[in-house]
Amino acid sequence: MAFPTTRLRRLRTTPVLRNLVRETVLTRDDLIMPLFVCPGTNVRNPIKSMPGNYQLSVDQLVEECKRLYGIGIQAILLFGIPEHKDETGLVACEHNGIVQQATRALKKAVPDLYIIADICNCEYTTHGHCGTVVDGDVANDLTLVTLAKQCVSLANEGIDMVAPSDMMDGRVGAIRQELDKNGFHNLPIMAYSAKYASAFYGPFRDAAESAPQFGDRQTYQMDPANANEALREVALDIEEGADIVMVKPALSYLDVIQRVKTNFNMPIAAYNVSGEFSMVKAAAANGWIDEKRIVREILTSIKRAGSDIIITYHSQDIVKDL
């Protein structure tokens, strides 16, 4: 039928009717809040390029997580800023590593909070790259050993999920094998499967103190021009044992999220990254946009594209409205 018999505006006439026919519904259950934990006591360092976010010592992280859980955020993604670094990132595997300390404290103070650990070496290496560097480049297979050890170390402390973000070939399989060998058969892996070498990560590198000291990460993170390659990366991670696959960043890669959703019957996460967050905050601070409406529209678009899970620094701003 065509106009005038068909009038699509009929279903837009009232808020109740619009809600009844809404196709994409954003809920607080979709959200994961990223947080940064650092050494010390009573430390709450503002991250200037990411308004409203902080580097938090373990005691302050506990208080922040109590607050977040109280407003409805049930899951966090934890990044560690260590007291000291080394050449290979093995510091991330220590019993008293910063994320290990944080996990123990959070499990005691906020036992129902779901804690996901980002698994990578860039925060823990002196050179800022995501693995062991040999002859000026990251040695893929040597790095897998460190990543697997990091996961087992955190599993021993009670972490709920591991999320390898390094983009080394074969790391999901190496991690799954090592976790299973140590009895952690039920610990899920959320793989950063299609992680692009993006310019949107700038503020994060300030927050995590993880900028590479030489070169860049284009030999292991994906070319932003490629989408078919993302499907190959996702397929390999699923074959190796990933339980959730991720696309990162989100906004410039909504097409990739949609293609992954169409091609794979898997839970999909999308990371609404620091640069995407900070641009919104900067525009809102200048009065150029309605921040609340923009954030809801952005997160709805990510979910509409096919993401089941959204990792976003906006979580604490929008959760009350959901």
TrEMBL record:
The UniProt entry's GO CC annotations, sorted and at most eight, read:
cytosol
Annotated Mg(2+) binding lies at 233
Query: Among its keywords, does the record have Magnesium?
Result: yes
Alphabetically sorted, this entry's keywords are: Heme biosynthesis, Lyase, Magnesium, Metal-binding, Porphyrin biosynthesis, Zinc
Q: Per UniProt, where does Zn(2+) bind?
A: 120, 122, 130
Subunit composition and interactions: Homooctamer.
Q: What is this protein called?
A: Delta-aminolevulinic acid dehydratase
Organism of origin: Prolixibacter bellariivorans
